[in-house]
Amino acid sequence: MTALTSSSPAPSPMGAPDDEGRVERMEGPLRVLLVEPESEQSHRLVLSLSGHDVDITVCVDGAEALLRVGMLRPDTLLTSADPPEVDLETLVRVTRRAIDIPILIGVGPGDSQRAVRALAAGATACVSRPYRIPELSALLRGSLPGPEGLPEVGTPRPTALRSGDLELDALGHRLFVDGQPVNLALREFGIMDFLLRHSGRVVSREELWTEVWHKPLPPVNNTIAVHIRRLRHKLGDSEARPRFIHTVRGIGYRLDTGQG
After folding, report:
1. How far apart are CA 199 and CA 21, in angstroms?
2. How far is C-alpha 46 from the geometric centre of its chain's CA atoms?
3. Using one digit for the tens of pLDDT, what is the confidence trace for 129-150?
4. Alpha carbon of 88 to those of 66, 78, 122, 163, 245: distances in Å?
5. Is 45 exposed, middle or buried (0-12, 13-18, 19+ CB in 10 A)?
6. pTM (2 decimals)?
């Protein structure tokens, strides 16, 4: 089996994992091990992410990925939901035993059940596939350890959130309003996820920024207001007569779904 790489990091033997398998993050590009059987998709990702300080090693199937994960010790594993040769759950479990890194699952139509089982087996998060480069780049950056990283493995979130006429599908990265799908950008999805999990209470701008952007809120910044305005447009909402997202002047926002 062969691998397509955007660079060639020096391999290290797969011995006893450091600090219970945890990988020490080194300076330099984010090292991603990608399991992608479609050559056109993998070439596109390598070319597109090369400008995002991401170094990708491509494996065509799960068996090759298991061989390389201990040799290369990547920062993140990104795999399709149906890798050839080795089933997804096995790939996740064996990787998780060998090395403590974020495991991201690319999910498309019909992959929900596989993704649920993978999350139960130890996967970290899911991302829509075919991949959208800005979304994927942000999620990969978020997989770095530390305050800007993803939630730790073992801290599960519900895969579906429902309140009133809103339903958020975490696996499919979709929001449904009155049963109709609404496509959201990465930050918009994060805002709706946080608002739905705190439906009915006032959420401050600082809370939203810390949760979605993972860093302190700058003194002067209208980014949240811009994203809320776009969200309202997609939800068919209105700032003057809001159905869902209510502005609480001087504090933040409250999601009111008309339930409870």
Report:
1. 38
2. 18
3. 888 877 787 777 765 554 444 4
4. 11, 11, 11, 31, 38
5. buried
6. 0.51
